[in-house]
Design goal:
Blueprint lengths: L1 E7 L5 H13 L4 E6 L4 H7 L5 H10 L1 E4 L13 H8 L4 E7 L12 E7 L9 E3 L5 E3 L5 H17 L4 E6 L7 H15 L5 E6 H10 L6 E4 L1 H14 L9 E3 L4 E4 L17 H13 L3 H17 L13 H14 L1
Parallel strand pairs: 1-2, 1-3, 3-12, 5-10, 8-9, 8-10
Antiparallel strand pairs: 4-5, 4-11, 6-7, 11-12
This protein binds nicotinamide-adenine-dinucleotide.
The site of nicotinamide-adenine-dinucleotide (NAD) has 19 residues, from loops.
Length: about 325
């Protein structure tokens, strides 16, 4: 059996990481039919947009994509391709696991968190306008439908994966209407899972402090879009940084797998960046396809090469390049 998969190499370090990921995924022996689709900076010049419709058509056809990071201009220019892709395909759940790994030096040894971020609304709708020359407004949209949908996703994930607790994160003490609605929606869904999955809530500032002091108290977090973006980077920092943090954007009809990190332009083309995050995103993709055995082999291979520590990239204290690390993982996958 061959799986058709859309492959978006992306900008900056993206293409090198995509090559590394393809090498490791193909080492599992699973057949992939890669539909390579460029998007981002390169297509602005040639097609006038960083997200051509053909990219979306490809993902609608294959139902699954793996994507390198894409550069987003700060302050002006095109809307983020990442945000545009999630909106166009209604990829409403952004799932970002943060697990400690042996061989990665961090403050904590036993972090095991799943961050579930709402991906379609909140301030990321980009509804902004200037109010005269010296003021600007951003509109935050929170709906019951989207909040209940993400809460249900989190609880269903908890049941399916044997997780014990979901913590809803908000700032409902200040944004009583918008964050209040998010919290109320989570509470409504939590009631349906009472006795099966525990539920609690935390105010986002306190949550950040608690995660830095005692991450082991938490299991799964469900958050609106902006807090989810920030807190998932914080969680990535707890387990070794952006180089090792994978992610998935899940919708009803399509799923896009990508690392938490961005395009790190200063390392582009240097064979330096750590491909672990995208390779582990590939393992999440295999799991999503039902290829659980292959997913476990990839995760185990990554963990064993990192634990050994002789062929790791600069961010993990080594001197290996992107390609050498990927080759070491791929050969471990073949042996496994
Ligand atoms: P970044 O994640 O690219 O870099 C942050 C820091 O982490 C840098 O020091 C970088 O060198 C390091 N880093 C990131 N990935 C690494 C890896 N794989 N291996 C080793 N070190 C790594 O974040 P940024 O600098 O804020 O953003 C750069 C660009 O990426 C921006 O245009 C931003 O909009 C975009 N971005 C895209 C995505 C995405 O495509 N999903 C996500 C975040 C940021």
């Amino acid at each position: 059996m061959t799986y058709p998969v859309t492959l978006i190499p992306g900008d900056g370090i993206g293409p090198e990481l995509a090559d590394a990921t393809v090498l490791v995924l193909e080492a599992t022996g699973i057949g992939f039919e890669w539909d390579v689709q460029s998007a981002g900076e390169a297509t602005i010049a040639t097609e006038g947009t960083p997200l051509p419709e053909r990219v979306l058509d490809s993902i609608r056809r294959t139902g699954v994509a793996i994507k390198g990071p894409i550069t987003t201009p700060v302050g002006s220019g095109f809307r983020s391709v990442n945000v545009g892709l999630r909106a166009a395909l209604d990829l409403y759940a952004n799932v970002r696991p943060a697990h400690s790994m042996a061989g990665v030096e961090t403050r904590y040894a036993n972090v095991d968190l799943i961050i579930v971020r709402e991906n379609t609304e909140d301030l990321y709708l980009g509804i902004e306008h200037r109010v005269g020359p010296d003021a600007a407004e951003s509109i935050k949209i929170i709906t019951r439908a989207a909040s209940q949908r993400i809460a249900r996703y989190a609880f269903e994930y908890a049941v399916a994966n044997g997780r014990r607790k979901v913590t809803a994160v908000h700032k409902a003490n200040i944004m009583k209407l918008s964050d209040g609605l998010f919290l109320e929606s989570c509470q409504q869904i939590a009631a349906e899972y009472e006795g099966r999955v525990a539920f609690e809530d935390r105010i986002v500032d306190n949550m950040c402090m608690q995660l830095v002091q005692k991450p082991e108290l938490y299991d799964m977090l469900v958050l609106p879009n902006l807090y989810g973006d920030i807190v998932s980077d914080l969680a990535a920092g707890l387990v070794g940084g952006l180089g090792v943090a994978p992610g998935a954007n899940i919708g009803e009809r399509a799923a896009v797998f990508e690392a938490v990190h961005g395009s790190a332009p200063k390392y582009a083309g240097l064979d330096k960046a750590n491909p672990t995050a995208l390779i582990l995103s590939g393992a999440l993709m295999l799991r999503h396809m039902g290829e659980t055995g292959a997913a476990t082999r990839v995760e185990t291979a990554v963990r064993s090469v990192i634990a050994e520590g002789t062929t790791v990239t600069y961010d993990l204290g080594g001197s290996a390049g992107t390609r050498a690390f990927a080759a070491a993982v791929a050969s471990r996958v073949r042996e496994g």
